[in-house]
Design a protein that fits this description.
By secondary structure, this protein is of the alpha/beta class. The chain is about 35% helix and about 20% strand. The chain has a 6-stranded mixed beta sheet with strand order 6-5-7-1-8-18, sandwiched between helices. A 4-stranded antiparallel beta sheet has the order 11-12-14-13. Strand 11 and strand 12 form a beta hairpin. The chain is globular.
Amino acid sequence: MAAEALWQDPVPLALDTAPLPEYGSGSLADLLPTLAAGQGVPDLTATISELTPADRNCVFLIDGLGWEQIKAHPDEAPYLTSLLGSSRGHTGRPLTAGFPATTATSLASVGTGLPPAAHGLPGYTVRDPATGALMNQLRWKPWTEPHVWQPYPTVFQLAEAAGVHTVQVSAPTFAHTPLTKIALSGGTFHGRLSCEDRMDLAAAELGAGDRSLVYTYYSEVDGKGHRFGVDSDAWRGQLMYVDRLVQRLAEQLPPRSALYVTADHGMIDIPFDEQSRIDFDEDWELSAGVALLGGEGRARHVYAVPGAEADVLTVWREVLGEQFWVASRDEAIAAGWFGPAGAMDERVYGRIGDVVAAAHAPVVITASVKEPHESAMVGMHGSMTPVEQLVPLLEVRS
């Protein structure tokens, strides 16, 4: 029997074993609607039941700082560590980012209060059905009209219309980006180069209204993780710095305020070996019948040549099925990867890959020729594993 077992075909991961995001109760898309509903903004629902309303809410989103990373580094992040028990309404539980766990998708979920199936940014790069070309939704290339791509209002816009003092405080470079326009616009944008100035201004703006909604952001934890990995001194230095930033902001909160510290995704370091990095550009099996490769290393959208969809799905499952959850477009949608049942907007359907592959093992599918920069990264993210998917919702109240 043992010899026979060696010759059996590998069994692909069952799709129902993928740990789904908690859409509708505990995902990033539920955060701002819950806070704004508690401030009396109409037509919004408080779906994170553990949170208590506050008149003044500040969300500090730290790019790339997942729940598991904070838990693993108590010495570098003593203040954040002290807040772990406050997460998600003092339940000590994290939120889920949504799928894929990547910046463009998560920021759109935060700002619109919608899952990826509705807001329509379901990956780092996805196919534009109108042109057939890959659209990079972080860098917004090639240019696409932002409000056609994502037509829904942001929670910030709804809050501003309801009389809430609404402010974003971030780096000046983000003031006019398409992603800001469709995900984070509404109220007043203040650009500040100094991170300390951002914390001070966020606190001041929080106190400037009887009801306030303030958003601020920091990017370099993610940047150092991608370049050097989350096991590097450079990354740990960033964690130490952002720990002090959070404490600086928390100590300035005006009365009747709640500060929520969260992130858009976590991160995992991927070894530089052939077993851990599968190069699509040099793999004839995986590339056969594929017209476009989208997404990113741990969350791939695969667009097949017309008529080759079934064959591509079969091959990807045979080659990768023990390391990736591999689904057809309809299977991924039905399983709830991009949102709850019924959430899929018609305009978004064709942006999803004919095949969607989400990493389970510590591996990535690189593309050394077409994606040299991304393929050289140490830290990666995108999939539904806890290290990527779970994000904090640390809380400080005044």
